[in-house]
Design a protein that fits this description.
The complex is a heterodimer of chains A (120) and B (109). With 120 residues, chain A is mostly beta strands. Chain A has strands at residues 3-7, 11-12, 18-25, 34-41, 48-54, 58-61, 69-74, 79-84, 93-101, 114-118. In chain A, the strands form two sheets. Chain A has a six-stranded mixed sheet, with no helix packed on it. Chain A has a four-stranded antiparallel sheet with strand order 1-3-8-7, with no helix packed on it. In chain A, a hairpin with a 3-residue loop joins strand 5 and strand 6. Chain B has strands spanning 4-7, 10-13, 19-29, 33-38, 45-49, 53-54, 62-75, 85-91, 98-100, 104-108. Chain B is mainly beta. In chain B, strands 2, 4, 5, 6, 8, 9 and 10 form a seven-stranded mixed sheet that branches. Chain B has a three-stranded antiparallel sheet with strand order 1-3-7, with no helix packed on it. The N and C termini of chain B lie far apart (35 Å). Classes of the chains: A mainly beta (120), B mainly beta (109).
């Protein structure tokens, strides 16, 4: 059974870089059958797709965030990571990692989520 | 970008009643339309993929239908644990970009 777990700082200062890691157990991030994805939910709002990595290096990002986002993978640790630069209070959210099969699509499983607050 | 519009924003129903949730796309969506249930403090849960296939372990009272630009999630007889927020989601073919609907909250009347 595949499980995902987010980790990283819960507080980031404005203008700095948010860095999160998703550790995958029970499966391999090397698999070309899945898009390894980051999704977020600001307080009181809906879900927003951030982007994904697959085939150990190909990425695709939400156009609204693309200029500030990098998703990378560390196959030796079976992890994938998110970096979001120049954060503001609007980036305060619960951040989830999730697995999305290339076919048929559908995010499952998800990590439990991690709340990241942007504040000085 | 494909925009997904969910309606209604809130549905007030009693246990045992049926719920019908709508998801309308701004342009034709492939069959890659999914539905999720989201409860506070939990990760979203995949209910339906490919518009009408139930995910593993999802009760038969959840069903999905629709094609093109109009999709529906039906909960045939609401159980107390079904009161939650529901999101639809699509992934375009190429480039594979994902969008979510704004959500429908199913609350106890």
């Amino acid at each position: 059974q595949v499980q995902l777990q987010e980790s990283g700082p819960g507080l980031v200062k404005p203008s700095e870089t948010l860095s999160l890691t998703c550790t995958v157990s029970g499966g391999s991030v090397n698999s070309g059958d899945y898009y390894w994805t980051w999704i977020r939910q600001p307080p009181g709002k809906g879900l927003e797709w951030i982007g994904f990595i697959y085939n150990s290096g190909t990425t695709n990002y939400n156009p609204s965030l693309e200029s500030r986002v990098t998703i990378s993978v560390d196959t030796s640790k079976n992890q994938f990571s998110l970096k979001l630069r120049s954060v503001t209070a609007a980036d305060t959210a619960i951040y989830y990692c999730a697995r999305d099969p290339t076919a048929p699509p559908g995010f499952d499983p998800w990590g439990q989520g991690i709340l990241v607050t942007v504040s000085s | 970008e494909i925009v997904l519009t969910q309606s209604p924003a809130t549905l007030s129903l009693s246990p045992g009643e049926s719920a019908t949730l709508s998801c309308r796309a701004s342009q034709r969506v492939s069959s890659s339309l999914a539905w999720y249930q989201h409860k506070p403090g939990q990760a979203p849960r995949l209910l339906i993929y490919d518009a009408f296939d139930r995910a593993t372990g999802i009760p038969a009272r959840f069903s999905g239908s629709g094609s093109g630009t109009d999709f529906t999630l039906t909960i045939s007889s609401l159980e107390p644990e079904d009161f939650a927020v529901y999101y639809c989601q699509q992934r375009s073919n190429w480039p594979p970009e994902v969008t979510f609907g704004g959500g429908t909250k199913v609350e106890i009347k």
